[in-house]
Amino acid sequence: MASAAEVNTGKTDAVPEAVVVRFAGDSGDGMQLTGGQFTLSTALSGNDLATFPDFPAEIRAPQGTLFGVSAFQINFGSREINTAGDQPDVLVAMNPAALKTNVEALKPGGLIIADSGEFGKRNLDKAKYETNPLEDGSLAKWQLLSFDISQLTLDAVKPFGLGNKEALRCKNMWTLGLALWMFDRERQPIIDWLNQKFAKKPDIAEANIAALNAGHAYGETAELSGPMQKVHIPAAPSEPGLYRTITGAEAISLGLVAGAQLANLPMFFGGYPITPASAILHHLARYKEYGVTTFQAEDEIAAIASAIGASYSGSLGVTSSSGPGIALKGEAMGLAIMTELPLVVVNSQRGGPSTGLPTKTEQSDLYQAVYGRNGDAPMPVIAACSPADAFDCAIEAVRIAVQYMTPVMLLTDGYIANAAEPWAVPDMSDYEAFPVQHMTEAQDGGFKPYGRDEKLARPWVKPGTPDLMHRIGGIEKAVDTGHIDYAPANHQEMTEIRRNKVLGVADSIGDQQVDMGDAGGKLAIVGWGSTYGPIHQAVRRAREAGHDVSHIHIRNIWPMPKNLGELLKSYDRILVPEMNTGQLKTVLRDQYLVDAKPLNKISGQPFLISEILAAIEENLV
Amino acid sequence: MNEMTKVTTLKDWETDQEVRWCPGCGDYAILKAVQRTMPQLGADPANTVFVSGIGCSSRFPYYMETYGFHTIHGRAPAVATGVKLANPELDVWIITGDGDALSIGGNHTMHVLRRNLDCQIMLFNNEIYGLTKGQYSPTSREGTTSPSTPYGSVDHPASPCAFALGSGARFVARGIDVHKGLPDVLKAAHAHKGAAFIEIFQNCIVYNKDVFEEFAAKKTAASTQLWLADGEPMLFEKGEKGIALDNENLTLKVVDVVDGDWEAAGVIVHDVTNRSIAHMLVELPFGEFPMALGVLYDDPKPTFESAVVEQNKLASEGKKPDLQALVSKGQTWTVKEGGPEL
Ligand SMILES: Cc1ncc(C[n+]2csc(CCOP(=O)(O)OP(=O)(O)O)c2C)c(N)n1
Ligand code: SF4
Ligand SMILES: [Mg+2]
User: Fold this and answer.
1) A170, A360, B150, B332: most buried, per Cβ within 10 A?
2) Helices assigned H by DSSP within A274-316
3) Distance CA A387, CA A251 (A)
């Protein structure tokens, strides 16, 4: 990690390996947009990166208030980056509230860039500052650069004759221009993007470009002495090939489309808007030429029920939601389990329970995914660890669903859904197709709707198929015939079949690998989902410091890889960092009788590398 | 709906499953009426899907030799929506009860009607929760005593047809389980392209015996039933009474017809496409008026699945599905040996 000193002292020979920048402003200031475009230009210059968008739950929180602050953090550098970074080196604060809510996270000695034009009495009051922090010396432990960005922006866009409000909207582009200068990024991709975005309003495009250029020129020419220096971060070494940036929501959408194509099926997606899952519905609604039908249902129950209906008709049914919506889908998941129809259920987890923290991230739906249905209702669960990983996880979820005739839960979280990272565009010819064969003729010995193949999957017969008419439903089915059957022995047998079928998925997922370190040793850090980044970096640093610690990342939450139990038992200690109160830990203890210890964070914020590092050191004494 | 005509007989529509309704339940009569009507529709069992919720009525699909999906309580319209969107060629029937469709599933009933999915919705109204042993339902009349309302229910009942019309239904009809008019209602529903809503008064002889007797009884039917037919005057009581417009109050009224001269009496001719009259018909208070039966309203408009299919087609026009191109979209860059390149 770069220290702030390296960035700011002008020692151009001491090029930092990585820099963390946080843009913070009012939710109306366009910080997510600024961050997104900065991310793009950073990716284009070949740095590896990770981002963390952090925005308020309120759509338009009152301007200038503390709870209306929206922030976007990016960590980029010349070596592998797995997290959005612990502490920012640079904080761009567009108003007093943004400064107040973010400055404590800034590294000591880090750089604050503040828009002094917004530090008037009203805004200071709203942010509950008694005196102006830009002037009262309270920011002494950091380096401060403040100038009137608002006025500078107004001056820059004057020629375009915008109203005051419209003109001030360009502030974020001014800031972005300055940031681009500071880190030696290209402006052209952003200019192209602005021209495209405002194709119908060329004067707005021009004004934004002017603001961007003005911000850049300000860095270039202004008589800034001291802290602000141009920093060039060399490109991260990466495998040759084609790259793009991708968010988790995009990756899941693309993965689902790819999965359906590999299965040779049309896709039906039933959804109901909810943060942070809606983005998947938005993306998929644009992929109609790939045989995707999207349906915005009247509620989450209708969303999953329609997807089940579509699967019954022979399409790949998919539904997606977040905690509260997944809870509503529970009964219907049971129906899909009972009727043994393929279905993918995507859960973009957020802080809970109830409405909880809609825009913050948490991993607290693992119990819900593995256990959260009435009856013995097993279903495979996969968890993605990053935006890029979400693509492959989605394909894997589709494969399991159609090959085993089962609903599959795919877990991501708000962090993965919103964050962007560079993605090596896959060569789709590397993916093995798994085309589905719907049954069109009876098996030898007569048609058995609940007959089984070697994977214990039942046949998938589409309505419309001559001579194979049959009835399915949620009532217990007789073995083979699928007729209603309440007999005790039959229920025992069918429950076991459903369990064994899902456990059998483990035959197709391969062994658990050790992500870093050795198989066996003093300490294993076992994680799942989006904690991958901080765990991986913490383990790397601990190993560099000579500690015997390994990182195991579990992607298949249910069923787990067959060798996992044995692998876990080969370590003296097991530590499970999770953004919940210890859910994976409980499953591991239950499945393998190992003494897995929890490390929990439930603040709605991702783990810091330093927090995990501290826990590693504590566990090695 | 399936255009193909297939020659079948009633037997072709029966399954080998033992029917498990209480002896004397009105559901038997409805089942037979449907099985008898299907051959007349020229329907193909392989192309027909019955989707139901949960309740006594929702057991129906098990007894039809077609594709069938017994889903979960209240959600049949949502499942059917997926079935039909994924394969618009299928002939989809939804079977539901008064509790299934109007309490737990009220939301889905409203939306399937509003969207106008091409399907037939048969609501078996017995004004009671049959399967759960007789609690009052959202259509039970005020004062209904039941295990959960030992002192009588106090809430106002919903009117299924008024609910349907209010939700935007383009076809609304009523029938009675044992009445010979039911097959014609089913045929009209099937002929209607779009969501066709049929309320069937069904006698639950165990928990709500003969609640419809006031108008369903054969003996008094002439004066208690108003069977509507498109283009025909609204007459009952063997043509001696009719329904006329009360212009002053903007409502309907019962008038006497003398010597068959219904025109002189001001009796109106049923126009199934008249939505205003349909609103009055579904609200006619029984007692003061006979029970309006048959096709109350039938005025098709484009269906949901056809609009979805059309939009999918238009949006895909001229675009070739190419996975490699799809994943490579957006702003990309190439890393060559030795570093990136814009
Ligand atoms: C989620 C859920 N809640 C409750 C029930 C219990 N339940 C089954 S059927 C039913 C009511 C059935 O009434 P109705 O729809 O009128 O059908 P009927 O039996 O009268 O034909 C209820 C409450 C259930 N199966 N599922
Ligand atoms: S309880 Fe009523 S509705 Fe149910 S089967 Fe018996 S008679 Fe029919
Ligand atoms: Mg009922």
Assistant:
1) A170
2) 278-284, 300-312
3) 6
- Which residues does chain A have within 8 Å of residue B70's beta carbon, measured at their own beta carbons? 471-475
B69 contacts in A (CB within 8 Å)?
309, 312, 339, 471-473
How far is Cα of residue A334 from the mean position of the Cα atoms in its chain? Answer: 27
Atom of ligand 2 nearest to the CA of B57: 3
pLDDT at B279 over 90: yes
How much is the pLDDT for B198? 98
Give me the interface pTM, i.e. the ipTM.
0.97
Q: Which residues of A touch B334 (CB under 8 A)?
A: 240-243
- Which of A271-275, A316-320, A336-340, B170-174 shows the lowest mean pLDDT across its residues? A271-275
Helix or strand run (H / E) with residue B27: helix B26-41
Q: Give me the mean pLDDT over the B277-293 stretch.
A: 97
Q: Is A30 left (phi over 0), alpha (psi -120 to 50) or beta?
A: left
How far does the CA of residue A570 sit from the closest CA of chain B (Å)? Answer: 40
Q: Minimal Cα–Cα distance from A424 to chain B, Å?
A: 9
- Ligand 2 contact via B19 beta carbon (within 6 Å): no
pLDDT at site A418: 83
pLDDT at A15: 57
Query: Where does the pLDDT of residue A604 fall: very low under 50, low under 70, confident under 90, or very high at 90 and above?
Result: confident
B340 shares contact with chain A (CB less than 8 Å): yes
Length of chain B: 342
Residue pairs between chains A and B whose CB atoms are closer than 8 Å: 221
Nearest CA in chain B to A331: B72
Rounded distance between C-alpha atoms, residue A225 and residue A228, angstroms: 7
Residues 6+ away with beta carbon under 8 Å from A174: A149, A152, A153, A156, A211, A212, A214, A215, A218
Residue A522 has phi, psi (to 5 degrees) of: -75, -45
Query: Tokens for B86?
Result: 């994924």
Buried-state track B270-305, b at ≥16 Cβ within 10 A, e below 16:
bebeeeebbbbbbebeeeebbbbbbbbbbbbeebbb
Are A243 and B335 inside 8 Å of each other by CB? yes
> Is the confidence at residue A1, as pLDDT, over 50?
no
- pLDDT above 90 for A374: yes
**Is 80 exceeded by the pLDDT of residue A16?**
no
Residue of A nearest to B322 (CA): A290
From chain A, the residues in CB contact with B67 under 8 A are 463-464, 469-471
Sheet order of strands, A407-413 included: A292-296, A267-271, A316-321, A343-349, A407-413, A381-383, A556-558
Which of B22, B133, B202 best tests ligand 2's pocket when mutated (most atoms within 8 Å of CB)? B22
Question: Which backbone phi and psi does A93 adopt, to 5 degrees?
Answer: -115, 115
Q: Is B30 in the pocket of ligand 2 (CB under 6 A)?
A: no
Cβ–Cβ of A464/B89 closer than 8 Å? yes
Q: Report the percent of chain A where pLDDT is more than 70.
A: 94
The model carries a pTM of 0.89
> What band does A224 get if pLDDT is binned at 50, 70 and 90?
low
The pLDDT score that the predictor gives to residue B206 is 97
pLDDT of residue A313: 98
DSSP label at A367? H
Tell me the best of B20, B25, B124, B211 to mutate to test the pocket of ligand 2, counting ligand atoms within 8 Å of each CB and taking the most. B25
**For residue B254, what are the β-bridge partners?**
B243
